[in-house]
Amino acid sequence: GHDQSSSLAQHSIELTLPKHLPFHRDLLRYAKLMEWLKNTDREKYEGLNKNYVDYISRLYEREIKEFFEVAKIKMTGTSKEGKKFATLPRKESSVKQDIESLHGSSGKLTGSTSSLNKLSVQGSGNRRSQSSSLLDMGNMSASDLDVADRTKFDKIFEQVLSELEPLCLAEQDFISKFFKLQQSPALPGSVVQTDSNEVDGGFVSRPHNLLGDKFSVPSEKEEASIIRSMMIKVFRCIEPELNNLISLGDKIDSFNSLYMLVKMSHHVWTAENVDPASFLSTTLGNVLVTVKRNFDKCIWNQMKQMEDVKISKKSKVGILPFVRGFEEFAELAESIFRSAERRGDLDKAYAKLIRAVYNNVEKVANESQKTPRDVVMMENFHHIFSTLSRLKIACLETERREAKHKYTEHLQSYVIYSLGQPLEKLNHFFEGIEARVAQGIREEEVSYQLAFNKQELRKVIKEYPGKEVKKGLDNLYKKVDKHLCEEENLLQVMWHSMQDEFIRQYKHFEGLIARCYPGSGITMEFTIQDILEYFSSIAQSH
User: Fold this and answer.
1) What is the number of other CB atoms lying within 10 angstroms of the CB of residue 270?
2) Contacts with 177 (C-beta within 8 Å, 6 or more apart), sequence order
3) 283, burial (CB in 10 Å: exposed 0-12, middle 13-18, buried 19+)
4) Could you tell me the pLDDT band of residue 158, with boundaries at 50, 70 and 90?
């Protein structure tokens, strides 16, 4: 039962690490011998300590490297497992030989390790939800292939962490028990106690001062430091292997850094709750720094891509690629961070990204030649507003309101600008009247101005019979249709706004005629009812 290598190939294919419980159980039968050596012969005790670390570190290094190799193959989707890991020649472990020379009959150890129990109690509920894929495939705008790949990566990365975690805790617990070392520093002011039933002599007594009177008493803090030092030597390959795996995940898809940030943060949080000073906490904490650095790089790259975007001068702008990119990022991030304990890193990233999106939408709008500035602003801020309203991202509520304001402002600006074109002469005539009134001429005296007398008014009105107005509106509809993109589906919204604005202007012109030309009986050649019919029939005919 101690040949860890015999089933290593199978463990590798299944992406699991061999369990060393039988190995630990057999060695723990000699814990009393180690305690006696620690009390009586420190040189032999430390020699055995060193031999154990040398042997077990080589075994773990081989197992862990092969484990990570399979994880990488599974991540990249290649199918080399069968060839590479179906038959793996193994040498007998020197650790196994040492054990067999020591033990005779098989001993048994009952009970589970304290660290492992503590971890499973504190982390079982959370880890159960974390180990399932955090990606809600139904809400993704990315392709099915992206969704499947990211889900696969998520599961593999979680599996890697879930295999390493109990392995490290079990080994640390074994080292503590077998070499009689305290795992946690004592509280300040604590004293070393001895059992009340100790008798004179060395081995039969059970003093808590394991070194007896012959040696200086190491503090619990020093013993915890010895355990950490042993663990670093035993698992020296874990941190570089994890960093290599993280680097690969980042190369496969930079958005994988979101998964890794959530997963790694969760495992660090769990490990710190068990023992903040443990090897596991320290190692995962170090790796988390790398993951955060990759996440920050992912955000920076997205911002850089926004600045570098090139828009065609020959086709309409539509929804900008980085606006769609932000939507995909936000959907993915919200699905991943839904069950995360902390989301401070994501909220900071959102603040940087949304500001970059807003700035670059304005930059493109200012530079646009084919599509009017107002249309670029209106469509893109409408898209952003819809995204933020749907996702309900709390830290971006101010930006959501800002997007709505910009969308509404530029919609109105475009409507007013466009409607000046089909009734251009009529607009100019009434603007002239308003200018005279603003200069101090009374409204009822405007008709005595040569350029604005009744004959001039009738002449301008005559140029806009109902038939011409409808024709002008039809041309306007076609022009607006060319400016707007189908994706955002704002044509009918725009057309309705134009109808409202046209009717508002019509009523304004009617009011000016009534006030400036009282009793003249002059009216427009079309009515509000005609306007409603024009707008409706034009919309239905396209």
Assistant:
1) 22
2) 28, 31, 113
3) buried
4) very high
